[in-house]
Amino acid sequence: MKRPVLVFVAAFAAAVGLMMSSVGRAEYAAIRGIPVTEGQMRIAGPDFDRIQQAQPAATDQFVLKETRVEAEIAGVLARVRVEQVFENPFPERLEAVYVFPLPEDAAVDRYWFQVGEKVIHGVVMKREDARREYEQARDQGRKAALLEEERPDIFTQSVANIPPKQTITVHLEYVHPVQIDGNRYLFRFPMVVGPRYIPGQPLGRPNVGRGWLPDTDQVPDASRVTPEPLPQGMRSGNDVKISVKLDAGMPIQNITGVTHELESKKESETVATIQLKGQKAIPDKDFVLEYRLAGEETVLASLAHRGQSGAYFALVLQPKWKTEAGELTPREVILLLDCSGSMTGPGISQLRIFAQHVLDRLNPQDAFRIVGFNNTTRVFRNQPEAASPEKIAEGKEFIRQLNASGGTEMLPALRTALGNAPAEQNHVRYLVLVTDAMVGNDDAILGYLNQPQLADVRVFPVAVGAAPNHYLISRAAEMGRGFALQVTNQDNPAEMAKRFNEKVSKPYMTDLEIDWGKLKVRDLVPETLPDLYADRPLVVMGRYDEPGKGEVTLKGNIRGQAVKTTLTLSLPEKLAAHDSLGPLWAGRRIRQIWNRNLGRETQQGKDEIIRLGLAHQLVTRYTSFVAVESDAAELAKGNLRTEFIQPMMPEGIPDAAIGVDRARPRTARAVGQPPAGGHHPQDGRGLPATGGVNRAPDVAMAPPAAVQSPPPPPPAYQADPGPPPAPASGSGRSSGGSGSVEWLFLAALGALAGGRMLSSRARPPRKPDDETGSR
């Protein structure tokens, strides 16, 4: 099948004359008589005609026009404002449905939409009540918007009755803490929901969502977290603009664009403004910003708020500790390596380099195991091996032989890696899970890790790729009392492995407790304090009723040696500042309840989450934001067209890597009002009758052996060409905010093929270390 190709209309398109006619100004053109503005994406005529033969409801225009992001970082908290601009290019009234990501620890607490000068504010209701309100307004012809949480990092936006040729801008805000690692601070804004592997058997009932994969017995809501991606090499019309106002409170040492090139300006020693170079980015990978602060690495910070909604505080403790050099505790390090199809390309290369460097830094008294998995599991040895130079060399060869193909059966691989057997006597078990975590059965995996018999295992997830599943990565670390790390396509995996090893090789603080002195605090999160690693802070939030000032002491043990850190905490009688602490505390409390109930959901837990969501106006799994125009001068009439906005494939992942067959004809989506409940039954798109959809045929893996060549990859997946040469050092950057897709203007080819444009996703070479620094 020929691949549909986008036409990118640039300022000089009229001069190039790729079967377009100029209209009025030089930066405007027309396709099939329709004016197209500069930068707008449209599908070329011959390609679109062919697409419509298989998909009559297909459109060559994009409904989501732009996403604007403004972040304000004050100290350790970020307040982020997101605007999504939807435009209706059709003659009918429009419903737009968009599945998109947010940070998994975000507390979404404000929501509204705007039509011209008119603003319609949203309110949080129980999820089923909010959907009923939205559907009633949609069917009546009123403008309405609905925001639902599918996972803590996946949301569905529905906007109804956008008038023909008009625009609706939806606004949402959230607050979350920035990540702290010593004197490094990390701000992340995710831009795309990557494809998910869905295990299990189809349920044989109408799907509960509108995604392209069916609900299964293991992932009952699979159709709500699987938006159909655009074909590889095609981009959406959604440009993302990001700006950040940073008020660090301490001198800023440097600012690094990990994934995108940036333009930054220091307003003072402690304040800076940052934006994307080129003003906008293509939404195919996380935006990751890292900045360093000068001075001591120890963080002792406190925030408080007391107003009409209540009194809240946050305490950030990052003590420094030193111990006498002594024999390190022996470890059993288990490398669990994701070799599924979605790791094809940069992902598997980053994984190989990272994992080999972890082996290189094992101590002589350590033992190790290696388990590679896709839709089957492959084990390096049945028993832990001593970390001798010979065995490490064999393990590294095993890792080099791993190729990316197949599905992502993570849960069976975890059972193989951890089982029920405890570690060897006097050994501490470390599970290093290297994966993009693109699975749909997140909760089942987390429920397994949350079992009491695995309490001795420390879990260190390493997220690989452009758009990993941060919900699974972050929660696995939290439940396993470890920490998480992300290795982007632009990172130097050897340098990231070095940083990882430095942290896990240091002694960590256990048996933590806080003495609050004379202060009376309550409803603390977390309830049970985790282990504390070097350079990783402890964040505690809570509520208080009585103001006061007193000394707070953090106590713990390092190798049996008692240590403590003190801080003076003030709980004010009245303080209007830091009003984000209320929703942030409630979000953390909800997170705590959800984690506790994973795998054994209770009505009591559900009721408490609903109560907190309603009280603090937060989106949760059981509560949603809904905004309805109640005073419409005129109700919309006529046919309602529903458009499902397709996300881009994450950077570096080809269609073949996830088993997508673009040649398979599909029945067109229904155009008009959805059936009752707002759910479209699936339309029989030729999906497999059994098993997960992003799943290769079962392949018989070789039996456990010291080093064996892996089986050939299934034909439905693209084999990885092998690791590229490792960069010397430092961390690379992309060549520009919107430069990850290069559009090649081929005039001669365009004249022959209806004005097509081809895309090249070749990555730019890394810059020298002295230009980029390292991360």
What do these coordinates show?
With 775 residues, the protein is an alpha+beta fold. Helix content is 17%, strand content 33%. The chain has 13 helices and 39 strands. The strands form 9 sheets. An 8-stranded mixed β-sheet has the order 10-9-14-7-6-17-20-19. Helix 7 (442-449) links the parallel strand 28 and strand 29. Helix 7 packs parallel to helix 8 and helix 10 runs antiparallel to helix 11 (603-616). Residues 1-42 and 662-775 have low confidence and may be disordered.
Task: Produce a short descriptive summary.
Helices cover 17% and strands 33% of the residues. By secondary structure, it is α+β, with helices and mostly antiparallel strands.
Labels describing this entry:
775 residues; alpha+beta; 8-stranded mixed β-sheet; 17% helix; disordered N terminus
% residues in beta strands = 25-35%
- Percent of residues in helices comes to 10-25%
Q: N-to-C terminal Cα separation, in Å?
A: 42 Å
The coarse overall form would be globular
Largest sheet report: 8 strands, mixed
Q: Which parts are unreliable, with pLDDT below 50 for 5 consecutive residues or more?
A: 1-42, 662-775
Look at the helices and sheets and give the structural class.
Answer: alpha+beta
Tally of contiguous helical segments: 13
Enumerate the strands of the largest sheet in spatial order, edge to edge or round the barrel.
10-9-14-7-6-17-20-19
Q: What value does the average pLDDT take?
A: 79
By DSSP, the count of extended strands is: 39
Spatial extent as radius of gyration:
26 Å
